[in-house]
Design brief:
- The structure is a single chain.
- It is built from 8 helices and 6 strands, in the order H-H-H-H-H-E-E-E-E-E-E-H-H-H.
- With about 260 residues, it is of the alpha+beta class.
- It folds into 2 domains: about 140 residues, Alpha-Beta Complex (endopeptidase fold (from Nostoc punctiforme)), CATH 3.90.1720; about 70 residues, Orthogonal Bundle (Muramoyl-pentapeptide Carboxypeptidase, domain 1), CATH 1.10.101.
- A 6-stranded antiparallel β-sheet has the order 1-6-2-3-4-5.
- The longest helix has 23 residues.
- The chain is globular.
Length: about 260
């Protein structure tokens, strides 16, 4: 049965990792898509350490995370979210907002707590100055923390792959339960990721600008229309995300097969 010491030991083995792609981003990209090999990797690190220590079920709820906001929201959904630093302890997954807004939606970064002393929170973090390092943090930038139920983990190197999280509907979805779907008017990194995916799976020719406008809506509808079992509404929710992951995996496998011949 795995516990907090296993999780921290897994993190310690990656101290000194730096740059990208690196061992952590390559592992995550192999599970979730090549675009992650050079993406911000703080929560990829948490996901890898959880898998390597057989804590994936309790730290990541059996899913893969690259997007810190969704990870924190999942802790909140499970009733395992704690605001600020009151009661924080070794093994907690701590989330940061450099803008000091203390809002989950503004979270920038994540690490694992290795100890607390005299108001200082000591951590191991991936993607801090583009490396895996020990850090000392203070309450001003800490939004809160998730407390995994260590001792209940069941599998190593398991779970569902995902861009940030995967619902039970399939490997690789970008929209976990409880998180709003992407739709017209959405903006940001996740929309850019979606646009890149659409350009790959169906040559949509979208500008990767992070704005979910009419062209992106139309491209999503095109994908939904040509994929069995999807509602054609132009919204990118769990069902569409799961189907897109399948399409990308098949395309990647086809290309590998072609390369072999």
């Amino acid at each position: 049965m795995s516990d907090v010491d296993d999780m921290i030991a897994a993190a310690e083995r990656f101290l000194g990792t730096s740059g990208r792609p690196n061992a952590i981003t390559r592992w995550y990209a192999e599970r979730n898509g090549s675009e992650f090999s050079r993406a911000p990797w703080c929560d990829m690190s948490i996901t890898l350490w959880a898998n390597r220590s057989a804590n994936a079920d309790v730290v990541c709820f059996g899913r893969d995370y690259a997007y810190t906001v969704w990870h924190a929201q999942r802790f909140a959904t499970e009733g395992q979210w704690h605001v600020d630093v009151a009661g924080i302890r070794r093994g907690d997954i701590v989330f940061f907002d450099w803008g000091e807004t203390n809002r989950i939606g503004r979270i920038d970064h994540v690490g694992i707590v290795t100890g607390v002393r005299d108001g200082v929170v000591y951590t191991i973090e991936g993607n801090t100055r583009d490396g895996c390092r020990r850090r000392a943090r203070f309450a001003s930038t800490i939004v809160g923390y998730g407390r995994p139920e260590y001792g209940r983990g069941r599998s190593a190197e398991g779970g569902k792959g995902a861009g940030g999280d995967a619902p039970a509907t399939g490997r690789g979805s970008l929209a976990p339960p409880g998180v709003p779907t992407l739709r017209r008017g959405s903006a940001g990194t996740l929309v850019r990721q979606l646009q890149r995916c659409l350009n790959v799976v169906q040559s949509s020719g979208l500008a990767v600008d992070g704005r979910f406008g009419p062209l992106t809506t139309g491209a999503v509808k095109t994908f939904q229309n040509r994929t069995r079992g999807l509602v054609v509404d132009g919204r990118y929710g769990p069902a569409t995300a799961g189907k897109m992951r399948v399409a990308r995996t098949r395309l990647r496998d086809d290309r590998r097969g072609g390369a072999k011949t």
